[in-house]
Design brief:
This protein is an alpha+beta fold and 238 residues long. It has a single domain, classed as Hypothetical Protein Pfu-838710-001 (Beta Barrel). 21% of the residues lie in helices and 39% in strands. Strands 4-8-7-6-5-9-10-11 form an 8-stranded antiparallel beta barrel, surrounded by 4 helices. A two-stranded antiparallel ribbon has the order 2-3. The chain is globular, with a radius of gyration of 17 Å.
Length: 238
């Protein structure tokens, strides 16, 4: 296995209404998400149902922290990549518009994802900035008023930067495959292997590596860090 293994951290990236908990190997979740399981911790929790949006409040109960393993790489030929992903998923994929606003925080990353349809998610996550598959964990809170929440968080924490992209989502087995066109950066792919309770990190990494090979993604195209990091790096260089 040519990709190194990394320690578990928090991460998150999903579509509209997400039910906690969840797990994934490298990428983000959507309404078509799989059940995820990770480490437990005690916390006050407001869970939003994925099916009807109803809430249930659990006070000081242990909940499961979703986790995933991620792979990100530069895509030189998005048409060819989309063709292979469509063949493997037996679908043409789903187009999703996303506007992410990142805020300053002491640890990890905090972002507000606006789906540009009066819905969004506030996401906190942590993951290592390394090439190859990386295990990450995240926390998500849905919102139906992203602009208002953005104003409050901007005043309280300050805005670190923004990422605007159009995402084409394919579901292949237990893996979410994203083909992203990122404003100011270009074309990328992300993989998220949705971890099952009985699976190990090594098994998830192997799934991600095998899928990379099937999609024709060379290891030389792997990318370190988040889109926000790449944008900030480009701003420093110019």
């Amino acid at each position: 296995m040519w990709l190194s293994r990394h320690s578990a951290l928090i991460c998150g990236q999903f579509l509209n209404s997400s039910r906690l908990p969840r797990c994934v190997f490298s990428c983000s979740l959507t309404t078509n998400a799989f059940p995820l399981f990770g480490e437990t911790f005690a916390a006050k929790l407001s869970t939003v149902s994925e099916t009807d949006g109803s809430k249930s409040i659990n006070t000081e109960e242990s909940r499961i922290m979703p986790s995933n393993v991620e792979i990100k790489a530069k895509v030189c030929d998005p048409s060819k990549f989309a063709e292979k992903a469509a063949e493997l998923s037996q679908s043409e994929g789903t187009i999703i518009r996303q506007h992410d606003t990142f805020f300053y925080c002491k640890q990890g990353r905090l972002k507000l994802r606006d789906f540009m349809n009066n819905s969004g998610q506030l996401i906190f996550y942590e993951r290592p900035d390394t090439d190859g598959p990386k295990l990450s964990r995240y926390s998500i809170s849905p919102t139906n008023d992203p602009p208002s929440l953005r104003d409050v968080l901007s005043d309280a924490l300050g805005v670190k930067g923004e990422v605007k992209k159009e995402r084409r989502l394919f579901l292949i087995g237990q893996t979410r495959v994203h083909l992203d066109t990122v404003e100011g950066l270009g074309n990328f792919m992300e993989l998220e292997v949705v971890m099952r309770p009985e699976q190990t990190v090594e098994e998830g990494q192997q799934i991600a590596e095998d899928l990379m090979e099937k999609l024709g993604v060379p290891k030389e195209s792997l990318v370190t860090g988040a889109y926000m990091d790449l944008i900030l790096q480009g701003q420093k260089e110019t």
